[in-house]
Amino acid sequence: GSYNKPSETVIPESVDGLQENLDVVVSLAERHYYNCDFKMCYKLTSVVMEKDPFHASCLPVHIGTLVELNKANELFYLSHKLVDLYPSNPVSWFAVGCYYLMVGHKNEHARRYLSKATTLEKTYGPAWIAYGHSFAVESEHDQAMAAYFTAAQLMKGCHLPMLYIGLEYGLTNNSKLAERFFSQALSIAPEDPFVMHEVGVVAFQNGEWKTAEKWFLDALEKIKAIGNEVTVDKWEPLLNNLGHVCRKLKKYAEALDYHRQALVLIPQNASTYSAIGYIHSLMGNFENAVDYFHTALGLRRDDTFSVTMLGHCIEMYIGDSEAYIGADIK
Fold first, then answer.
1. How many CB atoms lie within 10 A of CB 115?
2. What pLDDT, on the 0 to 100 scale, is given for residue 13?
């Protein structure tokens, strides 16, 4: 061929000879996308976008990956280019809507563009999912659910609508229904660490600590296997949940380790400090516990758990030191 072959690093050798077939590359990219390997997905979709800037089935995956990797600038330029060139294509308005969702605080803008996408094409699933997100971030559960259910009907065989419906049910304390949708998502995508994590959360809420720990650890293994290394802040809840479940199983040292890893990802999280303080108090390290509860309250004044625990730990700490003072006198 007259044009440059993409380098072998971009396309796995198993599809050697199919490099020029962009559809194959897109389906590979999709597989990486659903495995949450967004870096690899981005490499592949970028190759396709370079050769065919408006490859129809590649665009939604490419846009989704830009969102996951937080490439706001790139998405901004892409969406403008698409709207200029293809104002009647729903993917253009989907891109603009995703951009506004990504930069936050612009949910009504996002909705305006996403509903334009669904008006142009009623059956455009990705736009319905994003439309649902625009309500979910504002805790408008009913509207979010309606959009996700529409997406679920349009995107048969895709687990994402199921996952998001489950999340909304979980947030509205409907754990039985949440469980049903998570297990549907799991049957479609047994490898997805997000789904594993949510199934673990349900087990945790049901007080099944060992089961929850197993799901959380499976999710963690999966992420490490993808090579996403657990450095992305979206995995912070998983690390904190591992901390909570280890605490319930009285594995205090392990629990502390997970919470510390979570702090590396999101340093100023009051609830992480308060969780660490709580473990110290259970271990009888009241002085350390007092420090951590102070830090938590410095970050979030109205943290009632930390206030209560701080009082308790100070009493225990003072009680301890009084015992020692009494011992000295004898």
1. 17
2. 52
Helices of type H across the chain: 22-34, 38-51, 58-68, 72-85, 90-103, 107-120, 125-136, 141-154, 160-171, 175-188, 193-205, 209-226, 236-248, 252-265, 270-282, 286-299, 304-329
For residue 7, the 8-state DSSP code is: P
Residue 316 to residue 256: CA distance in whole angstroms:
21
pLDDT above 90: residue 274: yes
Q: What is the mean pLDDT of residues 244-259?
A: 96
Question: Which pLDDT tens digit goes with each residue over 277-297?
Answer: 999 999 999 999 999 999 999
Query: For residue 323, what pLDDT is reported?
Result: 58
Q: At what angle do helices 236-248 and 209-226 cross, to 10 degrees?
A: 150
Separation of alpha carbons 75 and 42, rounded Å: 12
167 to each of 197, 201, 213, 250, how far by Cα in Å? Answer: 11, 10, 19, 28
Verdict on whether the full-model pTM lies above 0.85: no
Distance between CA atoms of 99 and 232, rounded to whole angstroms? 20
Token pair of 15 as six digits: 């599809």
Rounded CA separation 160/103 (Å): 22
